[in-house]
């Protein structure tokens, strides 16, 4: 539906285009907010007005939502927090919250770009329509990833394969006509990552664990893969391990960025998806996330009224048919937050100059290893 056209306003923490070291706060106005001021008011006196039967009759939004929607947080949330009006759950659990994560993710991406680290995404599959050409091959170069991203940015469904894009659009239109929804898969690639982000020494510092946690925290994401992912479980070890090579002048298989011209160590494949032993290994980090179809259907499914316990059709709140393209952008943002956090964990300082010195000193160390 895309009723919002978000712009983030910086309220604090930035002066003349540079961060100050104090918290950066952002404001994103929600155009639909004004329509819900009364219904979601924090004031007790407004609640007393809801008891007015005439008011409720003329405004269906005032009526308590008592029919949980299958696939949503409605019923579990009501049982957990003892809510008798499901609107208390559905408003808070809404994916609209991800707008904030995308906003702060943009700041993280800006920071990482100072060190030539790029984070991109694209849709590989929607509603079962996919192309094997889009499943990133283990030996793909960063140039190939950027080409896919450029095509995805020009696509209404963020799919870089034009033939598949047409089929996806047709599938979405068909689902819309039926009152149904679609899920899909998107990939996020992190380019220019240095060796050694994350750690093997503690489970909660492992980079793969942090990234999976961040992606699974996006509403409706039901699965995450890194590199070959589940396909790796179906093959022999000899088929999936990325063999290590060394060349003094490492140009063709560069493992780091232009600011960090390589260690001499390289791999011809990237089945591990850029992470080994909980740490980045210098290859592009490849993440893949599966999103379930949106649970809110124009043709509602059966549910139970929590008060009467009678069977009803679930309530319908405004919703899209497919949100996979939007989810891929959210995936970029949450990935950026994790990579930035891990980068600062290793190279952190109190100014960009200090961080840069730490980073360049580390690059010198591993080049001379």
Name the features.
15 strands; 34% helix; 17% strand; Chorismate synthase, AroC fold; 369 residues; five-stranded antiparallel sheet; two-stranded antiparallel ribbon; globular; 11 helices; alpha+beta
What would a concise description of this structure say?
The chain has 369 residues and is an alpha+beta fold. The chain has one domain: 4-Layer Sandwich (Chorismate synthase, AroC fold). The chain is built from eleven helices and 15 strands.
Description:
Helices cover 34% and strands 17% of the residues. It has 369 residues and is α+β, with helices and mostly antiparallel strands. Strands 6-5-7-13-8 form a 5-stranded antiparallel β-sheet. It is globular and about 75 Å long. The relative contact order is 0.16.
Reading off the top of the CATH hierarchy, the class is best stated as Alpha Beta
Oligomer state of the chains in this structure: single chain
Secondary structure tally, helices: 11
Shape: globular
Number of domains: 1
SSE series? EEEEHHHHHEEHHEHEHEEEEEEEHH
How much is the average pLDDT?
Answer: 87
Distance between the termini: 54 Å
């Amino acid at each position: 539906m895309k009723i919002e056209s978000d712009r983030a306003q910086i309220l604090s923490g930035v002066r003349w285009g540079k961060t100050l070291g104090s918290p950066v706060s952002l404001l994103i106005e929600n155009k639909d907010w004004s329509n819900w001021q009364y219904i979601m008011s924090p004031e007790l006196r407004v609640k007393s007005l809801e008891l007015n039967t005439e008011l409720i009759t003329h405004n269906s939004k005032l009526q308590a939502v008592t029919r949980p929607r299958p696939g949503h947080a409605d019923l579990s949330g009501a049982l957990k927090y003892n809510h008798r009006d499901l609107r208390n759950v559905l408003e808070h659990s809404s994916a609209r919250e991800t707008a904030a994560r995308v906003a702060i993710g943009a700041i993280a991406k800006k920071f990482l770009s100072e060190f030539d680290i790029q984070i991109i995404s694209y849709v590989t599959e929607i509603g079962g329509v996919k192309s094997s050409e889009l499943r990133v091959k283990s030996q793909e170069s960063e140039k190939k990833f950027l080409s896919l991203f450029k095509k995805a940015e020009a696509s209404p469904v963020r799919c870089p394969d034009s033939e598949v894009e047409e089929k996806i659009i047709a599938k979405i239109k068909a689902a819309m006509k039926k009152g149904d929804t679609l899920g899909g898969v998107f990939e996020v690639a992190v380019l220019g990552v240095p060796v050694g982000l994350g750690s093997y020494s503690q489970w909660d510092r492992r980079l793969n664990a942090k990234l999976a946690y961040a992606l699974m925290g996006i509403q409706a994401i039901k699965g995450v893969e890194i590199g070959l992912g589940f396909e790796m479980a179906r093959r022999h070890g000899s088929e999936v391990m990325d063999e290590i090579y060394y060349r003094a002048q490492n140009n063709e298989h560069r493992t780091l960025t232009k600011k960090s011209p390589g260690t001499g160590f390289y791999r011809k494949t990237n089945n591990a998806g850029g992470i080994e032993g909980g740490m980045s290994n210098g290859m592009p980090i490849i993440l893949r996330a599966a999103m379930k179809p949106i649970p809110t259907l124009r043709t509602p499914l059966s549910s139970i009224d929590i008060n009467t316990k009678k069977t009803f059709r679930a309530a319908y709140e405004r919703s899209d048919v497919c949100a996979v393209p939007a989810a891929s952008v959210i995936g970029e943002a949450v990935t950026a937050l994790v990579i930035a956090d891990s980068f600062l964990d290793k190279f952190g300082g109190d100014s960009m100059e200090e961080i840069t010195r730490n980073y360049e000193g580390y690059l010198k160390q591993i080049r001379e290893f």
